[in-house]
Amino acid sequence: MAEQATDRLVRMLGILTYVERHGDTPFTELAEHFGVTVDQVRADIDALWLASEPGDSWYPIDFSADAFDADVAALVRNDGVSQVRLSPREAVALVGALSTMGAAGALPEAGTQVLAKLREALAEPVIVLGDDAVDGRVRDALVDAIARYRQAEVAYVDALDRRTSRTVDPHRLVLIDGHAYLECYCRRAEDYRVLRLDRIEDVTVLDGAVEHPPTDSAGFTLTPAFTATVRIARAGRWALEDMPGVRIEDAEDDVIATFDVADDAWVAGRLLTVAPHLRSVSPRRLVDALHRQATAVLDVQR
Amino acid sequence: MAVPKPQRLLNLIVGLSSTRHRLTREQIRDTIEGYEPLPRGASEEEIRKAEQSFERMFERDKKELRELGVPIETVEDPVHGDEIGYRIRPAEAAMPPLDLTAAELAVLSIATDYWRGAVLDGAAQQAVMKLASSAEHGPRVELPFAALPAVSSDAFGTLVEAVGERQSVRFEYSSSSSGVGTRTIDPWTVVLRAGVAYVIGYDRDREAPRTFRVQRIGGRVTRIGDPGAYEIPAEIPLGALDGSGDVKTARVALRPESGHGLRRRGTPAGVDGGWDLYDVEYAHPEDLVAEVLGLAGARASSPRVTSRPR
Prior knowledge:
The complex is a heterodimer. By secondary structure, chain A is α+β, with helices and mostly antiparallel strands. Chain A is built from nine helices and 14 strands. Chain A folds into four domains: 5-78, Orthogonal Bundle (Arc Repressor Mutant, subunit A), CATH 1.10.10.10; 88-121, no CATH class; 136-209, Roll (SH3 type barrels); 226-301, Alpha-Beta Plaits (2-Layer Sandwich). In chain A, the strands form four sheets. In chain A, strands 9-8-7-6-10 form a five-stranded antiparallel sheet. In chain A, strand 8 and strand 9 (191-196) form a beta hairpin. The radius of gyration of chain A is 27 Å and the shape is elongated. Chain B folds into four domains: 5-93, no CATH class; 96-150, no CATH class; 154-241, Roll (SH3 type barrels); 248-305, no CATH class. Chain B starts with a helix and ends in a 5-residue tail after the last strand. Chain B is elongated, with a radius of gyration of 28 Å. Chain B contains nine helices and 13 strands. Chains A and B meet through helix 1, helix 2, helix 5, helix 6 and strand 5 of A and helix 1, helix 2, helix 3, helix 4 and helix 5 of B. Chain A: Residues 7-119 form the PafC HTH domain. Chain A: This is Protein PafC. Chain A: Residues 140-205 form the WYL domain. Chain A: InterPro entries: CBASS_pafABC_assoc_protein, PafC-like, PafC_HTH, WCX_dom, WYL_dom.
């Protein structure tokens, strides 16, 4: 597909602003910086050169012709043309993503710096809530291990409250659904895993080098066991809105939620919190899990 | 030879930025390189066609530049009757000066992944291209961080634009208290919390500020009325989203070797028979209850909440 006119315009203005700030710049550097060919840079500069005020009265941008022939952009004149500020969508996209990474605890140091610069330059385009619940020592130790290609031993509590110690090959810190995860190869599971950072209690960087390379297919490795359908009064809807792959439809005074279940005990616990609002639950397997969970709760409260 | 479109858009920016007062549509058509002036000695039919084609082209250009963030102002001039003119204030259109390092630019590129395939995908990439002009050139920086795409809807993008333009919106909303209904609001801001999007605004029918979860909006968000129709308050009430305001403490009893997450957050408060007691702070009772109930079936050793959260 041909390049969008506005994409090219933004790059042209980018080249102009870049050369204005950095002085004479070889086309090769511009090509690398803006991710295009040298021929494209030449065409973009040509186009900037031709920019004219109404009636061809004045050409506000001028480059040195000699430098141009030597494949160097040397600005002779720029009469007030510059890169365009961020649109509201663009500002929300960047500030929203960076702040969400920050709130989750998956933002590198350079991200904190650039976020501060953007926030200063833009009026607050989006409010991002949430506290970084990740232990700073855990994150620093993991970043250190990843940077030096070292294995790490992590003390981890999974979603079912099981505490384990695992030796992992750490690869990346990843933001998934608003939470920070460690992508790694787990030697205990002999497979790739994502571990939630705020459930890692402790990290020890080991001497052994990483042996398993990162995989492209990382992400959630939990495979859904079955699909559940739950009908619930509207007041209980909130408890189901975060379920993986959930679809929610309105049905009179109720809603019908369909979602994937990887672990029926965990889902049953969630359903119990809104038990008075439940109208129907299927399949049978989830009903049984709900029953077991409810009995366990009643036993201890007795 | 026809002027390529990026060139025409650049000339339009230059023209509207350099005008002292404003340019009317006619002036734009006749003087800006890239638009076709009316042919001399043309028939009425030809003139009508040329006018229509200019109108279509200019409307599209204006819309695209505005979407790009170029503030094209509409200027009415009583002296010239109802003919509308346009201008750009260069200081308002320009990117503020920012000095970014190569590492900072690399983080921005990771941030765009958060929107990949989602509603703000194009906007995020466009933003990074704009900011690349403010960044130093250096070797590519590899950071061991990533962001997987968020779930988002077109409704979110429309709400972001409406906030930027201060334009009212109308949508179908499924509320937990009052069911499905049409809402008309003046949106004040969008909010993200742990990847979930909300919009806060003034609900025109309920005559009060309200918070809406974007996921509960059914179908399209329609912008209604004129841009700049209302003021956004300096202090926006966060309502139920603000978890920091009202923190309470509950005491939970945990079997040994269970409830690790609660133990880490809580303060030890002694023992009671076979139970370890912990005081845990919470903002939303339902979240704590969910956490405790979720532990029940995981192991035989279940926790109990000894003081009821309210």
